[in-house]
Design brief:
This is Acyl-coenzyme A oxidase. By secondary structure, the protein is of the alpha+beta class. It is globular. The protein starts with 10 loop residues before the first helix and ends with a helix. Bound molecules: glutaryl-coenzyme A and flavin-adenine dinucleotide. The site of glutaryl-coenzyme A has 26 residues, from α6, α8, α10 and α12.
């Protein structure tokens, strides 16, 4: 019997699980990277469940902001006391899973320490600096964050205002915030928790500005935790989500740090102030590339969770009686419900598989950089920026669709949707605002288009489609015979067409206006080209992964992968119809393909989401509970409300009581 079925479970959800046409365990292992990975997940889960230190006193939604920060700090200290429970080298896998189980979606005061401070030390320090700082950071004798964004600038790093001016007479840098807009703003854990930060500041030496560079800076006294003299900092207040994190602000008043505080793996300032430039001007942006790469998996996990909650709830929720007298049906049986939820599940899969690819590419980059080879950098910058944008955007929209699909209960924090959304949607902005990142991808695509037009193209595999000739019309005859190659060919056509459309528009504009205006006037089309480029990549990656799946899993997953592709095509049919590439009847075929996929997924939907292997502890959703007993759980969850501590709350005595009494006396 499936490990997901237990006595006392809701009958509808049990029936769904009994209908599975595949082995959920095998599917889980395939999704997560093999039996060993799955085994390790279970071991980590058991460990977390058995440790009382990781328990929340009540669901975190009922805690105040201060209580959330305090609870999160308590847990993260305990969690990091016990990192021997996981493979520390596998942050992408075991590390992220462990953190997700213990910390939930509230983030915590050490988030940036692990996600950016440590990786920056690893990636940007010279050997001497690494020896000095890394052991301290790993041991947690110091806590650090990554302070780059300012009140006035987040995107345009070249205009950051914090200055680091080299003083050769003392061999120190002087950090200064010359304006209010120079205040660092947003860094996680900066407000109250960190005592160190990587500070990105404009480097001045010998009277010249050398652009933004990273420095390691002590912000607070190691014993008293009071801000150092010349440092002003605090919390920036509540946000849409992640309120367990003390995102902060920071200002410097001519604060002196030693020369060796500048991270000198790539750029250097010698004692006399001579500046040595890096091998590639963007090497200093390495940590951002790293985070963009790993956040894809995080986003996929959030969307997968939302789809799991919506699917399970849709299996136990009965509403509407199409045949009067036959009883109400499961809302999962409505095609409209499937159309709302299943594409989100398909996206979550697509994003997860792309996350594995970008992880591997990033590892290759790290290896190459150790040999001084920066060739891969532009490609990975373009891919990670593009995936980050498309994935976080679709994830945010997808979570919202899942929430809506759960009706009123989706609006309650019991559903976990508000937490999931608040947490995930930050990804649209941090690590590079999504549209800005799409425009970075566009720079890469414009170069590929230019090469193709010049006939000199020797493009990287990822944009090889740009230089292909392609067909003038789609070869789709019927949806049943629509092969993977044909699907890819059709998407390639639209992506290529949009790339050249944007490129030609840009070139034409350049003949009439200044280059920056030409870029601006073409930027909506350029961003669209980037989106198509990324969608094509996602579809290819997904179909390729499913192609290689074992037969028993492939026969289910193929419908999910095709749904992902068909949904993209049918919801942008205009692009495919343009210039008669597709005929309306071909679009109709694809729409039918969507409905067929929905019908194929329907009977196995619950087992498919079970295969993601979310424990209730990780989902933290009353609606998405494994056992499906949601109504009892909702009633129980509401008991945590502070308002339920007494039958009559003081507000009644103060306001409502006198109001009604007064009104009664006048009747
Ligand atoms: C928008 C850009 C990319 C522009 O860079 P720029 O140097 O001002 O622009 P430019 O001189 O016009 O040069 C563009 C050129 O630089 C290249 N480039 C840009 N970034 C990279 C990279 N990482 N690797 C390799 N190459 C890179 C681009 O491809 C361009 O190349 P090209 O000129 O086309 O050949 C940059 O300013 C940027 O990345 N902005 C976004 C800032 C950001 O991501 N901040 C993150 C702060 S930390 C954070 O949010 C943590 C949250 C974590 C959490 O809470 O979990
Ligand atoms: C939850 C969260 C956590 C964060 N954590 C950190 C952290 O730990 N450390 C840190 O340093 N920062 C952090 N940040 C800051 C984050 O990296 C920035 O907010 C982000 O890079 C965007 O910059 P911005 O806020 O200045 O937006 P802006 O750049 O002002 O963007 C505003 C609008 O202008 C548009 N725009 C800007 N430039 C262009 C352009 N060139 N072309 C076209 N349109 C443009 C954008 O698309 C957007 O629509 C965090 C932010 C959030 C929300």
């Amino acid at each position: 019997m499936s490990r997901w079925i237990q006595n006392g479970d809701n009958v509808d959800i049990t029936k769904e699980r009994k209908n599975a046409t595949f082995n959920t365990e095998r599917m889980s292992a395939w999704i997560h990277g093999g039996d060993e990975v799955l085994k390790r997940r279970r071991e980590i889960l058991d460990y977390v469940k058995s440790n009382p230190d990781f328990k929340d006193p009540i669901p975190v939604e009922f805690l105040s902001r201060e209580e959330r920060v305090s609870n999160g700090t308590r847990k993260i200290v305990k969690m990091t006391d016990n990192t021997d429970q996981i493979d520390g080298a596998d942050f992408f896998g075991e590390g992220m899973y462990f953190q997700s189980l213990v910390m939930g979606r509230d983030l915590h005061p050490l988030s940036l320490h692990y996600i950016m401070f440590l990786p920056t030390l690893q990636g940007q320090t010279d050997d001497e600096q690494l020896d000095e700082w890394l052991p301290k950071a790993i041991a947690r004798s110091i806590v650090g964050t990554y302070a780059q964004t300012e009140l006035g600038h987040g995107t345009n790093l070249s205009k950051l205002e914090t200055t680091a001016t080299y003083d050769p007479s003392t061999q120190e840098f002087v950090l200064h915030s010359p304006t209010i807009t120079a205040a660092k703003w947003w860094p996680g854990g900066l407000g109250k928790s960190s005592n160190h930060a990587i500070v990105v500041a404009q480097l001045y030496t010998k009277g010249q500005c050398k652009g933004p560079h990273p420095f390691i800076v002590q912000l607070r006294d190691l014993e008293t935790h009071k801000p150092m003299k010349g440092v002003r900092l605090g919390d920036i207040g509540p946000k849409l989500g992640i309120n367990g994190s003390d995102n902060g602000f920071l200002l410097f008043d001519k604060y002196r740090i030693p020369r060796k505080a500048m991270l000198m793996r790539y750029s250097k300032v010698q004692p006399d102030g001579t500046y040595i430039a890096p091998a590639h001007s963007k090497l200093g942006y390495g940590t951002m590339v790293f985070v963009r790469s790993i956040m894809i998996k995080d986003q996929a996990t959030q969307l997968g969770a939302a789809a799991t909650i919506a699917t399970r709830y849709s299996a136990v929720r009965r509403q509407g009686e199409p045949v009067v007298g036959n009883g109400e049906i499961q809302i999962l049986d409505y095609q409209t419900q499937q159309y709302r939820v299943f594409p989100q599940l398909a996206r979550a899969f697509a994003f997860l598989f792309a996350a594995y690819e970008i992880r591997d590419l990033y590892l290759r980059l790290t290896e190459e950089l150790t040999h001084g080879n920066t060739e891969l950098l532009p490609e990975i910058h373009a891919l990670s920026s593009g995936l980050k944008s498309v994935v976080s955007w679709d994830t945010a929209q997808g979570i919202e669709q899942c929430r809506l699909s759960c009706g009123g209960h989706g609006y309650s924090q019991a559903s976990a949707f508000p937490e999931i959304y608040g947490y995930a949607v930050g990804g649209c902005t941090y690590e590079g605002e999504n549209l800005v990142m799409l425009l970075q991808v566009a720079r890469y695509l414009v170069k590929a288009a230019e090469e193709t037009r010049k006939g000199t193209s020797n493009l990287a595999e990822i944009c090889g489609y740009i230089s292909k000739t392609g067909r003038r019309t789609s070869s789709l005859t019927s949806i049943a015979n629509y092969t993977t190659d044909q699907i890819i060919e059709d998407l390639e056509h639209v992506a290529r067409k949009q790339v050249f459309h944007a490129y030609d528009k840009l070139k034409k504009a350049q003949q009439h206006v200044k280059p920056e205006d030409a870029w601006n006037q073409s930027s909506v089309e350029l961003a669209k080209a980037s989106r198509w480029h990324v969608r094509l990549y996602l579809v290819k990656t997904f179909l390729k992964k499913v192609d290689k799946a074992p037969e028993d899993l492939k026969k289910v997953m193929i419908h999910v992968a095709r749904l992902y592709a068909f949904d993209i095509i049918s919801s942008s049919s205009g692009n495919f119809l343009e210039e008669g590439y597709m005929r309306p009847d071909q679009i109709t075929e694809i729409k039918e393909g969507v409905y067929e996929c929905l019908a194929k997924i329907r009977p196995v939907a619950v087992s498919l989401v079970d295969s993601w292997d979310y424990d209730d502890l990780e989902l933290k959703s009353v609606l998405g509970k494994r056992d499906g007993n949601v109504y009892e759980a909702l009633l129980q969850w509401a008991q945590n409300s502070q308002l339920n501590k007494s039958d009559v709350i003081p507000t009644f005595e103060k306001y409502l009581g006198p109001m009604m009494k007064d009104a009664r006396s006048k009747l």
